[in-house]
């Protein structure tokens, strides 16, 4: 069983910059079509519940909303990925958010020492996070997320699985600062997945979590040539594994018409579990309901289908 | 329908202006967040000035409950109690973990490794967890070499650890030299040899003890998660209270409200 789980982690780690023995790769898997359409370059300009994953401070400015995200990941292992979140701003205090994510990583054969198949194991994971973010003045916002990851496994047949589900906790924190009064330029930084190692079998085996540092700058230019109902924004982010690997770079842009129709493009280079490649996304808003779709043309997980993301938001 | 949008204000809860100085304002109600406004809490001597109270979130992040104490809130007791309880349990779990580690190492030395030394088994060298994990999985380590002199002759009994390593090395490497080199890297040396033969009961106890050690580690891990969550919750609580207190009305009352629109 230890070999099986190690293999699964290694497969996940072979994509993007996450090379090495890191546990809790589930914490890195991206979700949220708005951000994915912009190659996850949203640490400074993300909106809504999905932005929590990149920078908890971003919900300080956001509206009250309920969001539901589903994703098909690049790793070829995750067969179901669903996230639901609620963001609830409290006047004069800040914004609170709660999110729950379920990952189903499919079935895998269990073999004994003689490599004979003796059973089947289904892997899954649950991530529960609570977020608080607040503004300090008009320009600065900060936030943090406390999240818990629990991995589960169900056996059919004879399997040697851990007697207790592996679990760990981690903290994300982030800040954002508007350089200009009219919010044209914003800079932001965040630290992700700072927490205790993930123990699957025993403490010496415990693997460190995938710590990441992200910085980014976003710009919302105003072009006189564009109609006043058209809005454009762009962002460049750099993501770096704290202890291993080189940096990854994320470039994203969005154009929106009347805040109702949106088109997004991006390019990620060593952007994480979803690898490198261009991204695109579209969005449609009708009243309080927002629907977004995104796809990544990645070099990771070849043969497992393009990573695809769908998000539904209800803003009220 | 924007014209039909209604605004529904509810639950305006008022509280007196907050100050370290005595105040003559009588609270009309008690806000949920602010237990300090009760008549009993008003007499608490350790309430600090509003300026110092601004540092309550930082204090709470460092020591849960301390921010609430600075703000004069009764619920500091809950945070302090949880913190104390969690640290006490963590200390207990760490102690249990060390105790179990000492127990299974002593059992291994005296029951499984003592056959391979002429001296005191307690003087046998220690090793990392991977070594003790092998002792759980294999009843015997097997010999490093079946020959007492000359070139290494690897163990061939695949039911032993060394024998299984030699079998694996042979199936992995095409040449005997390569397999032998790999075998020498992985095989257990004579000073670490073990055998649970004729000691099935002790072997079972050894496995149970290692499991208990892992349980203690896991429990301590959970304690640390609770401690971390307590620090953060206490900080957010203190921060929210400071923010809400800061938003007092012109008449000295604090207000909290919610709007429902449709």
Condensed summary:
The complex is a heterodimer of chains A (316) and B (262). Chain A is mostly beta strands.
* Continuous helix count of chain B: 9
How many strands of chain A? 14
**Main sheet summary of chain A:** 14 strands, antiparallel, barrel
Detail the poorly predicted runs of chain B: 1-30, 37-43, 254-262
The number of domains of chain A is: 1
Structure, explained:
The complex is a heterodimer of chains A (316) and B (262). Chain A has 316 residues and is mainly beta. Chain A has one domain (2-315): Outer membrane protein transport protein (OMPP1/FadL/TodX) (Porin, Beta Barrel). Chain A is built from 2 helices and 14 strands. A 14-stranded antiparallel β-barrel of chain A has the order 1-2-3-4-5-6-7-8-9-10-11-12-13-14. The termini of chain A are far apart. Mean pLDDT of chain B is 79; it is low at 1-30, 37-43 and 254-262. Chain B is 53% helix and 3% strand. Chain B starts with 6 loop residues before the first strand and ends with a strand. Classes of the chains: A mainly beta (316), B mainly alpha (262). The A-B interface holds A 90-94, 132, 134, 144, 146, 148, 163-164, 167-169, 171, 196, 199, 201-205 and B 128-130, 133, 210-211, 214-215, 217-218, 221-222, 224-225, 228-229, 232, 236, 239-240, 243-244, 246-247, 257.
Features:
heterodimer, A: about 325 residues, mainly beta, Porin, globular, B: about 260 residues, mainly alpha, two-stranded antiparallel sheet, elongated, disordered N terminus
Give the helix/strand layout.
The complex is a heterodimer of chains A (316) and B (262).
Chain A: H1 2-13, H2 33-37, E1 65-72, E2 80-90, E3 94-111, E4 117-136, E5 140-157, E6 167-178, E7 185-195, E8 212-219, E9 230-241, E10 248-257, E11 261-269, E12 277-286, E13 289-296, E14 308-315
Antiparallel strand pairs in A: 1-2, 1-14, 2-3, 3-4, 4-5, 5-6, 6-7, 7-8, 8-9, 9-10, 10-11, 11-12, 12-13, 13-14
Chain B: E1 7-10, H1 39-42, H2 50-53, H3 56-62, H4 66-71, H5 76-113, H6 129-137, H7 161-172, H8 176-186, H9 200-246, E2 258-261
Antiparallel strand pairs in B: 1-2
């Amino acid at each position: 069983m230890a070999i099986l789980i190690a293999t699964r982690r290694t497969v996940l780690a072979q994509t993007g910059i996450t090379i090495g023995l890191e546990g809790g790769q589930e914490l890195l898997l991206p979700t949220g079509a708005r951000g994915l359409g912009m190659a996850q370059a949203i640490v400074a300009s993300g909106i809504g519940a999905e932005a929590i994953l990149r920078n908890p401070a971003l919900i300080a400015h956001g509206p009250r909303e309920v969001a539901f995200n589903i994703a098909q990941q690049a790793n070829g292992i995750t067969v179901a990925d669903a996230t639901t979140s609620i963001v609830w701003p409290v006047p004069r205090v800040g914004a609170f958010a709660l999110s729950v994510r379920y990952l189903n990583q499919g079935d895998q054969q269990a073999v004994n020492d003689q490599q004979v198949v003796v059973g089947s194991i289904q892997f899954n994971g649950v991530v529960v996070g609570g977020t608080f973010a607040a503004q300090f003045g008009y320009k600065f916002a900060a936030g943090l997320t406390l999240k818990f990851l629990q991995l589960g496994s169900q056996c059919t047949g004879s399997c040697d699985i851990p007697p207790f589900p592996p679990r760990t906790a981690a903290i994300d924190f982030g800040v954002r600062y508007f350089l200009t009064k009219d919010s044209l330029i914003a800079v932001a930084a965040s630290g992700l997945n700072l927490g205790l190692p993930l123990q699957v079998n025993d403490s010496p085996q415990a693997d460190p979590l995938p710590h990441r540092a992200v910085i980014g700058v976003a710009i919302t230019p105003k072009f006189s040539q564009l109609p006043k109902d058209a809005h454009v924004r762009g962002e460049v982010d750099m993501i770096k594994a704290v202890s291993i690997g080189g940096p990854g770079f994320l470039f994203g842009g969005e154009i929106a018409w009347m805040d109702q129709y949106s088109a997004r493009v991006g390019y990620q280079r060593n952007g994480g579990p979803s690898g490198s490649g261009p991204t695109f996304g579209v969005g449609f808003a009708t009243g309080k309901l927002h629907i977004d779709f995104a796809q990544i043309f990645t070099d990771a997980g070849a043969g497992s289908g393009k990573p695809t993301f769908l998000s539904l938001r209800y803003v009220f | 329908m924007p014209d039909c949008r209604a605004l529904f204000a509810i639950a305006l809860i008022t509280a007196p202006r907050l100050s370290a100085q005595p105040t003559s304002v009588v609270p009309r109600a008690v806000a949920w967040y602010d237990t300090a406004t009760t008549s009993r809490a008003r007499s608490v001597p350790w309430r600090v000035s509003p300026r110092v109270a601004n540092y309550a979130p930082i204090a709470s992040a460092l020591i849960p409950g301390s921010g609430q104490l600075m703000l004069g809130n009764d619920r500091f007791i809950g945070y302090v109690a949880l913190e104390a309880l969690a640290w006490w349990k963590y200390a207990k779990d760490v102690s249990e973990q060390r105790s179990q580690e000492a127990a299974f190492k002593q059992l291994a030395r005296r029951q499984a490794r003592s056959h391979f030394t002429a001296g005191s088994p307690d003087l046998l060298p220690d090793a990392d967890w991977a070594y003790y994990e092998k002792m759980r999985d294999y009843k015997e380590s097997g010999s490093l070499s079946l020959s007492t002199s000359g070139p290494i002759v690897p163990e061939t009994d695949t039911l032993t650890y060394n024998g299984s390593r030699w079998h694996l090395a042979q199936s992995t490497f095409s040449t005997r030299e390569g397999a032998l080199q790999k075998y020498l890297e992985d095989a257990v040396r004579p000073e670490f040899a073990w055998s649970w033969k004729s000691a099935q009961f002790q072997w079972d106890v050894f496995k149970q003890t290692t499991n208990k050690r892992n349980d203690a580690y896991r429990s301590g891990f959970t304690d640390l998660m609770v401690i971390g969550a307590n620090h953060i919750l206490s900080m957010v609580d203190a921060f929210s209270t400071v923010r809400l207190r800061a938003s007092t009305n012109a008449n000295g009352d604090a207000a909290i409200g919610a709007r429902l629109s449709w």
